[in-house]
């Protein structure tokens, strides 16, 4: 059983890593033409081109956007998930349907329609992007935290209160440690929404907010710069993979 589980994890890791192998080869290929199986000339031209295109600034803006979306959408999703799980909200099914509506509506149509409204209201482009992405992330954080609160045993909190702990001490020392894996998972999903978004950023941002996905799309639309596209694509993959590892560690600790 244990061997089969390890083999399954190994196959899953291989499945995830394999698509990155051609990107790694392209990233350090100064010349790679058909029918050669490997690059004929190795180098760092792709790295230089990516840096010259503004990859560093775009990376920081994407990271900041993802972090802001996660910081706002995670506590909002936690509050909504707790209320829905405890059935404190009247017509909770309707409320849940409203919260999930961003997953059903076409993002392009929503962003295009709200772009006109935000322009007329004079909302700054960056603020408009953040607001819309937080709304887009809420379904993921709400569902994650609703499931976590539904499985959460409040008996631990009641016991802490009986032993003299204050409400804040109970939240800090009992509730948050127990819910840490779910909170980390919700924050990861919210970060991904902000980090990987293209449609909302390009429509609402109006070209004034250049993030890494916009840079990747711009480079991929041209020809002859495969090495640069590979470097930018790998750069966009690394932070989510690193965060996924952190979430996995927290989940493992939570099960102990």
TrEMBL record:
Annotated family: Belongs to the binding-protein-dependent transport system permease family.
Keywords annotated in UniProt: Cell inner membrane, Cell membrane, Membrane, Transmembrane, Transmembrane helix, Transport
Segments traversing the membrane: 63-81, 93-112, 118-138, 176-195, 229-251
Span of domain ABC transmembrane type-1: 59-247
Protein name as it appears in the record: ABC transporter permease subunit
Gene3D superfamilies: MetI-like (1.10.3720.10)
Predominant location: membrane
Membrane topology annotation: Multi-pass membrane protein
Coiled-coil parts of chain: none
Location within or outside the cell: Cell inner membrane; Cell membrane
Top-level taxon of origin: Bacteria
Provenance organism: Blastococcus brunescens
Record-linked Pfam families: BPD_transp_1 (PF00528)
């Amino acid at each position: 059983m244990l061997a089969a589980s390890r083999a399954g994890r190994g196959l899953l890791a291989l499945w995830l890593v394999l698509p990155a192998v051609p990107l790694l080869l392209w990233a350090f290929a100064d010349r790679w033409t058909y029918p050669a199986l490997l690059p004929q000339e190795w180098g760092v031209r792709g790295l230089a081109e990516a840096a010259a295109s503004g990859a560093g600034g775009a990376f920081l803006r994407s990271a900041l956007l993802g972090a802001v979306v996660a910081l706002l959408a995670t506590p909002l999703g936690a509050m909504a998930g707790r209320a829905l799980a405890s059935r404190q909200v009247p017509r909770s099914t309707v409320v849940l349907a409203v919260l999930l509506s961003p997953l059903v509506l076409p993002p392009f149509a929503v962003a295009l329609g709200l772009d006109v409204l935000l322009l007329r209201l004079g909302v700054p482009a960056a603020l408009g992007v953040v607001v819309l992405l937080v709304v887009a992330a809420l379904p993921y954080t709400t569902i994650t935290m609703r499931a976590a609160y539904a499985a959460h045993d409040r008996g631990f909190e009641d016991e802490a209160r009986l032993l003299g702990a204050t409400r804040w001490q109970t939240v800090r020392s009992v509730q948050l440690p127990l819910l840490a894996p779910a909170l980390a998972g919700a924050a990861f999903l919210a970060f991904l929404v902000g980090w990987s978004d293209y449609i909302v950023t390009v429509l609402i941002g109006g070209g004034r907010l250049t993030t890494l996905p916009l840079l990747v799309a711009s480079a991929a639309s041209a020809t002859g710069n495969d090495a640069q596209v590979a470097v930018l694509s790998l750069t966009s993959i690394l932070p989510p993979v690193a965060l996924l590892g952190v979430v996995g560690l927290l989940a493992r600790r939570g099960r102990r």
